[in-house]
Amino acid sequence: MGIKSCLIKILNLFISYFYKVFKTIFRKNIREDILNLSSIRIINTSQTLDVVENSIVNQQKGVYMRFGDGDVFLMNMKMDSFQNPNLQLAIEMKEAFECKGENVHKCLAIHSERYGYEEGMFIGNHLVKDKEAQILLMNTFQFFIGENIFSPIALHFNASNNIERAKIFLKNLKIHTKLFIGNKYLKNDVLNKLFGNVMHIETPEKNAYSEIERIYSEAKNELIKIDSFCVIVIAMGCSGRPLMKRLYNDDYNIYLFDFGSLLDGFNDNMTRTWLKKNKIDYKYLLSDL
Hints:
By secondary structure, this protein is α/β, with parallel strands linked by helices. The protein has 2 domains: 1-37; 45-286, no CATH class. Helix content is 49%, strand content 13%. The strands form 2 sheets. The protein has a 6-stranded parallel beta sheet with strand order 2-1-8-7-5-6, with helices on both faces. It has a two-stranded parallel ribbon with strand order 3-4. α2 (45-57) packs parallel to α7 (163-176), α4 packs across α10 and α6 crosses α7. The chain is globular. The chain starts with a helix and ends with a helix. The mean pLDDT is 90. This is GT-D fold domain-containing glycosyltransferase. InterPro entries: GT-D (IPR014869).
């Protein structure tokens, strides 16, 4: 290879490198400009709960998906606390973010001074710093263009700040729930009080995506037996989002509800800081459902 050919090859490598660097910077700047110029506000917890409850009571097909940092990590092949990354999961997580529809209620953990918070929220209790919220939104805003961003802690926050409202929602949820897909260690008495005598498809505490084909197959087998509208409650962390995406895209008349870490509180397992900081009357919430 001559000197001229070597120089051309080196030049092309430099051009390729700088293109990639500046393309990343350019995209980042565009995202920041969009977010700085926009007036994005998260839907508050009460409104979110009303919207979800309305879909359930009126038996409308839909889904309530709660997205956060862990979902973004997994979409980008990075580690989450309860789930190892892999390529297929990354692909399905992106597809979950891309879900659209009249009753697709996608949430993002951006309760902050900048994007909206409520009295009673503070750092460690559902409130995040503006910078953290902006980074999360900057990494996902393309999935929310033209759509509302719902609160991921609608039931959680009402359970500690408006317990009567939370109780009404839980009653309506129980009436329509026919299937629970979640942690195999959930106590039977909690399961029965919250959702009634429903089928429980058990999922592992960690790395639930490794069993998603089994879980998905069992869910479809149960849904075949149900000939009317119902709610499916999901509680399997980030791995639940790809499952919800699959079931929503199938031809079932269902509403998929992502319950979240409040379920750990009912199970006497204080896995989150916010659970430790709030004195929730779980016994009262479970009574007379």
